[in-house]
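Recall the central idea of this unit: under ordinary conditions, the amino acid sequence of a chain determines the structure it adopts. In this exercise we apply that idea directly, starting from the sequence alone.
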Amino acid sequence: MEFEAPRMSNSTALARGIIKQLIELGIKDVVLSPGSRNAPLSIALFEASEKGLINLHVRIDERGAAFFALGISKASARYVPVVCTSGTAVANYYPALLEAHHSDINLLLLTADRPARLRKTGSNQTTDQSKLFGTFVRASFDTDKDLDLSKALSGSGPVHVNLQFDEPLLDKNNSDWLSGIKVKTQKKSTGQSIEINTESKKSLVIVGHDRAGFSVAEIERFARDLAAPLIAEDPLVFEGAIAHAPIVLSDEKARVALAAENVFVIGRTTLSRSINAYIQGAKRVIVIDPRTENIDTSRTSDEIYTQIPKLKKPLDIDQSWHELWKKYEALAAIALSVLPEWSEAELATVIAEELEDDTALFISSSRPVRDFESFAVPRSSLITYANRGLAGIDGNISTALGVATQHSESYAVIGDLAFLHDVSALANPTQDNLTIIVVDNNGGGIFSTLGQRGSKGFEKIFGTPHGVDISSVVKSFGISSQQISSAKELHIALQQIHTGLHVIVAKMPDREQNADSIAAVLKKYSQLVLL
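Accordingly, the structure predicted from this sequence is:
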């Protein structure tokens, strides 16, 4: 009797075909959450990782897994697949997906599903996943057959592939399906360069936190050709940026005195109200952001470009224009003298100053990212990250852990509520070197700096004091932790070397006191402007 080799199941064949294709397209990292329906993918991914073809990261919580993949993609600029089983697991991708969509980050959502015939039949863990993410993905596929992903992954932004796996999910076919794989060279298309002409020597460049995907060198060259001062929401990568810009532009008289003829906005400005007020009052605004083509399609300004234009003729510097900005910058620096010795502003200043070159720094949304923009002294050579697409406080630990996989040394500054929001990520830490500094002011400190301060029921509905001993929580996960409560202790803590995950809990003064100190700086600055 002739022996017949076991026939491979359709689900195994589909999973192997997809994974093989992703490897050939240059995928390096894959994030997987355990499940049953995605078992064909899980096994195929493990086999590929055993051969060193991919880095497989297993995250037990799908919501955190998606933010973890987001962090890897931010740091690598490559597509990162995140793989889950069917049902509610898929819906947990939504928060990170929205962040990826609005930031134009390369996430590949690879979701396992039951066969389409089981939808609306009451079958277990079955819902209509096919178009679950709507317009927030650039492309969407729902299939039980292999498909060509090369075109879908040639652009940028999130993509969804929903794979229908039928029984039997697994088989014993042990063919060497990974032999002979060759990574294909990916060619990126470059758009035709745009030239502009301006004779104005009173221009200003304002750069949003994610730089709209452009490099620091590109932006600095553009500002240099314009002979323009530069304001950066992220001053830790632009050494020549105007320091303390939100304070400089906080006074209306200063905004009038510093009015530019042309304001070039690169990316989105999502932090400072004073900077946005300056932009709104500008004579002429030129926006430079690729997202205006397919994401922010309703954005308006006098001119819009999807790439940084070239100047037909670079301009000579108007020294008086630059000196005017330096004058107000110096006044803002003097106003900082009213800050207390230990404050959230001082924490941002110390961290920005002391981290070594080429260190990665993730800064969480809400108050921390604003403190770095307002109080840190501009420098270069840090590699910074922040979730500014929708600026949520969810998934911040997970994103920072993802970023850390791509760097030898990483730090993250995260507010206490954002930390507690994603504390489950500590149950599944990586071995990468990441130090998290938690800004612990026992609640939502940013609200004390906003208009709702003093409203009835403020502490319950905005302040939300948690009363949690965060250091003890961290230690309960078996992770090293320390608590500090002064600038001197922060200096010492930043000099210490830790391997793996380490958490520094920075106990801060009262939230109201912090808000008062910021208000005092702005008041002092306005007084100096009048002199």
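Residues 87 and 316 are 61 Å apart (CA to CA).
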